[in-house]
Amino acid sequence: MEKKKNLSQISVPHTDNANFKIGIIVSRWNEEVTNALKEGAVSTLVEAGVAKNNLLLFDVPGSFELPSAAAMLLDANEDLDAVICLGCIIQGETRHFEFIAQAVANGIAKVGVEYTVPVIFGVLTCNTPQQATDRAGGKHGNKGVEAAASCLQMLHTHKQMYNRK
After folding, report:
1. What was the pLDDT predicted at 30?
2. Which end of the chain is less crowded, N or C, counting CB atoms within 10 A of the terminal residue's CB?
């Protein structure tokens, strides 16, 4: 069996997306990679029918700031349907990588549970810069595309559960 090279070939709901209001928060650390993730997420959402003026784009210094920025964004926008957090953490010589990656993952999950809206983890945690590039539009697809697709799928699930919009 041949292993899939492009993991971003996924199903995206294309109906009833126009009115979804989605925040996208992007880490500036490893900016070349995170900009590619952002471009993938935005293009996927727009192609799926989300109105471009319903996308709120913000950047933060690094991935560690993503959870608090997601909470601030949700506090400031009660009509926000979801938040996508995009970042890239690359392993260095110390254990710093482990602490940051775990804190970011736990923080993003906590915000989603506390606010009861989809808060999507679109953070690459890679061993090398090449692995990050491969997952930001390279041979393994674009994880920003996958984060946007997950967001839309979760919004439709949320809508069914809460009988919203």
Report:
1. 93
2. N
